[in-house]
Write a sequence for this structure.
């Protein structure tokens, strides 16, 4: 009996041109539009599109060199080092021009260059541009930056060095990456300082005394060569997960969003049964409401499955979107279809009890857009505040999108278990609510 | 033999009393008429029989057994033609019939045979593959009836099955009903068309405002008005005060105005014409034609309620 109803419901859905346009053509068009436009931007946002930053440099290598010379010519130092040692030290210091290394080695590193474009500017202009939102971040290299760092690295003194970072709060994600690069750099320098201290302490303990300074230059150089490479890996690891292309993202996002409309459409079909009095005919024949609604549930779930399959196959053929391992794609598609069926039943019951479409229209005009936004159907919700992102991941569409992306990235079924649990729980909760209402209220 | 019986059947919607405790019965093999104006309670009564809504009070018996606790035996042998077109407009007539046949438990070969037979009964074999939404009003009505016949019900309830259709479809439907009855089906036919009930029905209940106000065969009912005569009069304009003046004539039993025509029921033998002409002159109304006729069923209603069936 249920299948008779399911087949009839599916027939009606497939004959409904307007609904088909919304459920199949619209998402397909949006996938292509968003994939070509925003999707490209999205790709670049991570790999190519630069974060614009400004460097305000208060440091001057010539002054620093002059200062360090003065420092070494200081009578105290003259006693500790002979002229040749001094020359060697100056030479290695000259090579360790920290501003220069930061600008020309760190920031112009192949990988980082893809993400950060910088400009050296005076403080006033840079701050103005930051306030205007033209910059992602502003980095201020302090006066005597190299000088103080040399002191810290070569001598047992500790001069405070502070690199300031001003971030654009509207570009939190990008600014955060910039910050991690800068702190990565300064931390490597600190590591050098710590290494120096440990080296000197060890040398003093071994009574090697000032002789050890010979090796210090080598040590520092060695430590200082690390940062760029390690920054490299750090930077890559931030984005290493993001192998998803804009097209892949929007194919999954649109599919996840448009299935929500099936639920409101289903509520309309249920109301139709009342409006067309076909419901009465079935009741006269002794068909219980639960059977009619079960038919609605199965038909909506099946339709959702068909719709998702259509979008997956057509985007694969036309846009070469890679959805991942086929059996896994099939599994997740089936699981996503279940809560949509449940949602259809709940909206149907509410519409039938209130005898109008208001609630389902409200759901369509208010909740679907809201769920789409927080579920990341338009912009990845990773860039949203944690609270919203977490909520978004709990929506059917959000969980579906996360799920599809993970499958695209090649995660295993067990890696997706929390997403599956979310989807199944969501579906079951809606079912329990639906049948709870049905027990209490006459439809 | 009584096949179906309603006892003191009552339905109250919040404050609105739709059916005021009516008793009636349906005899095996007859065509029973329910005649009543809009809002009389016909559909409400049918809905209670079809167990679509529970009665507030009273009982419904099938062969002496209540169906309120167990409607199954009645459901199996009952066909209901709803007042509204109860079909899926996007599906074809064939698909609709197949679907409702399956709903009634028909399958396979038997289903196909019944669908074919029903299409033949309603005379739409040739257009069975068209969508209902492309059908004319009359064709929809015919499929609407057909869908109730699939499971070969013993009792068929038809709720105003000819509302709003062309005369040709209407005649077809009336003939169909006659044929079904000839083949042994028991039919409860509701309408507010006096002619239909007069043409089809063996017995008639007249309903108004939730109550049965008269019952009997055509002739029994007409006897109610046999003491009366009827005047049908055409005038050039309607005047409310003239209407009231007519009603206030002592011998007049009822007055209705429809299609520029006054129908006046009055005691046989009284000389009303003089009175009417005098009033027309007083209210400056021109009488275009005037006829004295013997009463019809419609006049029974008019006399019983003082109103027409379709005001
Ligand atoms: N669901 C309902 N809630 C409240 N009142 C109702 C409901 N259904 C019917 N009624 C009222 O009950 C009365 C009888 O209605 P019903 O539909 O049975 O009349 P009917 O004889 O079938 O009229 P019609 O010829 O217009 O079909 C009307 O006054 C109607 O307003
Ligand atoms: Mg009615």
């Amino acid at each position: 009996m249920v299948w008779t109803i399911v087949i009839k419901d599916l027939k009606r859905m497939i004959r409904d041109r307007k609904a088909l346009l919304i459920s199949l053509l619209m998402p397909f068009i949006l996938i292509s539009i968003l994939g070509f436009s925003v999707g490209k931007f999205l790709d670049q946002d991570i790999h190519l599109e630069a974060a614009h930053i400004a460097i305000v440099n208060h440091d001057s290598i010539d002054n620093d060199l002059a200062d360090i010379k003065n420092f070494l010519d200081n009578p105290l130092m003259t006693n500790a080092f002979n002229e040749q040692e001094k020359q060697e030290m100056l030479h290695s210091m000259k090579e360790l021009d920290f501003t220069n290394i930061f600008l020309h080695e760190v920031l112009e590193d192949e990988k980082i260059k893809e993400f950060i474009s910088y400009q050296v500017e005076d403080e006033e202009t840079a701050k103005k541009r930051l306030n205007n939102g033209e910059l992602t971040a502003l980095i201020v290299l302090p006066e005597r930056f190299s000088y103080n760092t040399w002191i810290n690295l070569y001598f047992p003194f500790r001069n405070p060095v502070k690199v300031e970072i001003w971030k654009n709060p509207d570009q939190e994600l990008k600014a955060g990456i910039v910050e991690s690069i800068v702190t990565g750099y300064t931390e490597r320098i600190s590591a050098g300082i710590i290494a120096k201290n440990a080296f000197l302490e060890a040398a003093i303990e071994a009574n090697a005394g000032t002789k050890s300074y010979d090796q210090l230059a080598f040590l520092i150089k060695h430590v200082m060569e690390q940062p760029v490479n390690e920054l490299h890996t750090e930077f890559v690891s931030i984005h290493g997960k993001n192998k998803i292309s804009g097209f892949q993202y929007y194919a999954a996002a649109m599919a996840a969003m448009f299935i929500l409309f099936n639920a409101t459409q289903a509520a309309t079909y249920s109301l139709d049964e009342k409006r067309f009095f076909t419901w009465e005919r079935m009741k006269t024949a002794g068909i219980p409401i639960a059977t009619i609604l079960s038919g609605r549930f199965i038909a909506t779930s099946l339709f959702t499955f068909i719709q998702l399959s259509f979008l997956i196959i057509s985007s694969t053929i036309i846009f070469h979107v890679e959805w991942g391992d086929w059996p896994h794609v099939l599994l997740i598609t089936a699981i996503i279809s279940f809560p949509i069926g449940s949602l259809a039943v709940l909206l149907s019951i509410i519409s039938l009890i209130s005898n109008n479409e208001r609630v389902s229209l409200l759901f369509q005009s208010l909740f679907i857009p809201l769920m789409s936004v927080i579920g990341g159907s338009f912009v990845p919700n990773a860039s949203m505040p944690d609270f919203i992102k977490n909520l978004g991941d709990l929506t059917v569409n959000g969980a579906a999108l996360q799920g599809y992306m993970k499958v695209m990235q090649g995660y295993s079924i067990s890696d997706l278990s929390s997403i599956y649990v979310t989807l199944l729980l969501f579906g079951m909760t809606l079912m329990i609510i639906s049948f709870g209402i049905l027990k209490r209220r006459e439809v | 033999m009584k096949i179906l019986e309603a006892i003191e059947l009552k339905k109250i919607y919040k404050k609105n009393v739709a059916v005021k405790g009516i008793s009636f019965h349906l005899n095996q093999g007859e065509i029973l008429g329910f005649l009543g104006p809009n809002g009389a309670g016909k559909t409400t009564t049918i809905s209670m029989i079809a167990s679509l809504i529970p009665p507030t009070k009273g009982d419904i018996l099938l062969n002496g057994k209540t169906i309120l606790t167990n409607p199954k035996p009645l459901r199996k042998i009952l066909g209901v033609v709803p007042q509204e077109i109860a079909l899926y407009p996007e599906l074809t007539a064939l698909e609709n019939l197949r679907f409702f046949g399956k709903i009634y438990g028909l399958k396979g070969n038997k289903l196909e045979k019944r669908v074919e037979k029903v299409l033949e009964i309603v005379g739409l074999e040739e257009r069975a593959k068209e969508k209902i939404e492309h059908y004319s009003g009359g064709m929809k009505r015919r499929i609407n009836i057909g869908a109730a016949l699939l499971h070969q019900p013993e009792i068929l309830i038809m709720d105003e099955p000819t509302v709003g259709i062309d005369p040709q479809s209407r005649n077809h439907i009336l003939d169909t009903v006659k044929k079904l009855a000839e083949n042994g089906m028991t039919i409860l036919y509701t309408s507010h068309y006096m002619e239909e009930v007069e043409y089809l029905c063996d017995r008639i209940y007249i309903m108004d405002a939730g109550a049965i106000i008269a019952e009997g065969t055509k002739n029994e009912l007409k006897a109610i008005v046999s003491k009366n005569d009827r005047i049908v009069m055409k005038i050039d304009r309607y005047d409310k005060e003239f209407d009231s003046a007519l009603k206030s004539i002592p011998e007049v039993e009822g007055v209705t105005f429809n299609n520029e025509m006054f129908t006046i029921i009055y005691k046989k033998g009284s000389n009303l014409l003089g009175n009417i002409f005098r009033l027309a002159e007083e209210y400056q109304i021109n009488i275009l034609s005037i006829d004295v006729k013997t009463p019809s069923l419609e006049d029974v209603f008019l006399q019983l309620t003082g109103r027409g069936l379709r005001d």
Q: What stands out?
A: DSSP finds 20 helices and four strands in chain A.
